[in-house]
Design brief:
Blueprint (H helix, E strand, L loop, with lengths): L1 H19 L5 H7 L1 H15 L6 H37 L2
Length: about 90
């Protein structure tokens, strides 16, 4: 039993020592910076995890957004014109 306890203590001590070590090289300290770590992880995610659309998919989505924007602009323009005419009619001008 005592041998098992000693082995456990040895493993725990090594784990504590490993965790308490500070990065020694400049690069390791630079990467340990929270902002740098965030930027590095963001780059890795954009580079390796994001599925980017093909050119045709991007073109089709752009056309859909432009068409929807033009439709909404036309509807809002008509509503604005209608309300303007209504206020002119009520105001007597």
């Amino acid at each position: 039993m005592s041998r098992e306890r000693e082995e456990r203590r040895g493993h725990e001590n090594r784990a504590v020592k490993r965790d308490s070590k500070q990065p020694s090289s400049r690069l390791a300290r630079f990467r340990a910076n929270r902002i740098v770590a965030f930027l590095f992880e963001a780059y890795r995610e954009l580079r390796y995890k994001v599925t980017w659309p093909t050119f045709q998919e991007a073109r089709n989505m752009t056309i859909a957004v432009l068409a929807l924007s033009a439709f909404v602009a036309a509807v809002l323009g008509l509503a604005d014109l209608g309300l303007f005419r209504l206020f002119q009619l009520l105001g007597g001008h």
